[in-house]
Amino acid sequence: MTYSFESVASIPTKGLYFSEKFIDVKKVLMDTFFGPPETGVYSSSVQRTLFLMGSAVLKRFVDVSSIHLKLPNIHFQPSKTLQW
């Protein structure tokens, strides 16, 4: 996570609780990406999925002003094949 401040006066005097915030943000990202365990969630595109994930974090955490996410734009899971 990146925190940026417009001026020195805007830097919080209390700790920024990164560990707790990281865990909470990770949960929102995972819940949005995977959806409910019983049904999952349909993804029309990688770009839409990333947009929904980032939007969910920004809506849930007012103290997070921006988020940068990256996923490979592939539609299969690469794996090693057996040599004949």
UniProtKB/TrEMBL annotation:
Keywords: Oxidoreductase, Purine metabolism. Pathway: Purine metabolism; urate degradation; (S)-allantoin from urate: step 1/3. Pfam families: Uricase. Its EC number is 1.7.3.3. The keyword Oxidoreductase applies. InterPro entries: Uricase (IPR002042). One of its GO terms (biological process) is urate catabolic process. SUPFAM superfamilies: Tetrahydrobiopterin biosynthesis enzymes-like. GO terms for molecular function: urate oxidase activity. Belongs to the uricase family. This is factor independent urate hydroxylase. It comes from Arabidopsis thaliana (Mouse-ear cress). The lineage of its organism: Eukaryota, Viridiplantae, Streptophyta, Embryophyta, Tracheophyta.
